[in-house]
Amino acid sequence: MDIEEKLKQIKSRFQEVNTAMSDPSVFDDPDKYTQLTKERSDLEELVQDYDTWSDLKKRLEGNKELIEANEDAEITEMARDENKEIVVELEELEEEIKMKLVPKDPEDSKNAIVEVRAGTGGDEAAIFAGDLFDMYNRYASSQGWKMSLMSINESEKGGYKEIVFSLEGDEVFGKMKYESGVHRVQRVPATESQGRVHTSAATVAVLPEVEDVDIDINTSDLRIDTFRASGAGGQHVNKTDSAIRITHEPTGIVVECQEERSQHQNKEKAMTMLRAKMYDIELEQKQKERAAERKSQVSTGDRSAKIRTYNFPQGRCTDHRINLTLYNLDAIMKGDIGEVIKALRVQDNLEKMQELAE
What we know:
This protein is α+β, with helices and mostly antiparallel strands. It is built from eight helices and eleven strands.
């Protein structure tokens, strides 16, 4: 990969986008303006990196000329010392640029639907599922994302047997996709009188939210049932059959939504969930095929894989895919998962770089 040539192309395209956005007629086409705004945002960081890279290169060449001139011993020595630092900066910057030049998955910019389900562990698993939901809700808030509940099945002792919610914002799926898999917790449950550490689990599935154009659903394949909504924790109980359950008969996929007050709104959300599930079946298969080729430790597409352990007695969180262990579990459970997600994204990009190089 010729970094300089690629960066020149990016800067040229960045200038073209800026010119297009300065044309008043662009405001007459909202879709085009939105597209240009997003492209400009995607290119801007690399353009800044290119400017920094070019500046470092110029300083390196300028110092080399001073060294070759050899007119002043003190100045020559200072130029040599500075060049050592510049070379290190350039190497680090070039590695960052290479990572950013790796093609993004087209799904990364999509919004996401997240399903959290209690696994093994009974009441404690449901409580842990609730803790994971709270963690993701806080993380979403820190990212400026919008969270909307879609389906809730609460547990009597607290937490959730299942909770489904959507996240809307910038690069949602690109960040959240690494959360799919089995999350394991080791702690003393509140219901444990003997103080023994129990191991429980919850599963997380992150699906990219898709539009009608992404997946074709034949309405004749759908069975739509209505039922009376119970609402979250008994709230918003309706006296009418406003909750919706949709069954896609060819695949057996069932989705339901009861969080909205109207049948129409619940049907819209249920259809969104159905499209996401059907699209995810295709995406998961592609991920498995790609992972088999890449031997990826990060994006296997295997929802049954144990990906992370939250050990409360030791205050430790371990992501098993990249052997990352952090001792700030309290902060992580409060939504501070950015470091884990960043490490997973870096590893994923490294694998993609190796794939491109082969």
